Amino acid sequence: MSRFTEVKELIDSLEEDFTKFYEKGNKAAGTRVRNGMQAIKTLAQDIRKEVTDRKNSGN
């Protein structure tokens, strides 16, 4: 479950940058959003692999 919490915290940490980018046009915030979304994608892939491995091992 700690990985789920990690995903939630990462999403929460990006909220301010989303606002800066979409409402104020701050391009640096857009870069931070892109980097954060890439980190979320990587983490999600790791979680999917872990779930699949656990499901297939019978745990």
Automatic annotation (TrEMBL):
Q: Which Pfam families match?
A: Hc1
In which domain of life is the source organism classified?
A: Bacteria
What GO molecular-function term can you cite, just one? structural constituent of chromatin
The similarity comment for this entry is: Belongs to the histone H1/H5 family. HCT subfamily.
Physiological role:
Might have a role analogous to that of eukaryotic histone proteins.
Q: What is this protein called?
A: Histone H1
**Organism name:** Echinicola pacifica
- Provide the organism lineage as a comma list: Bacteria, Pseudomonadati, Bacteroidota, Cytophagia, Cytophagales
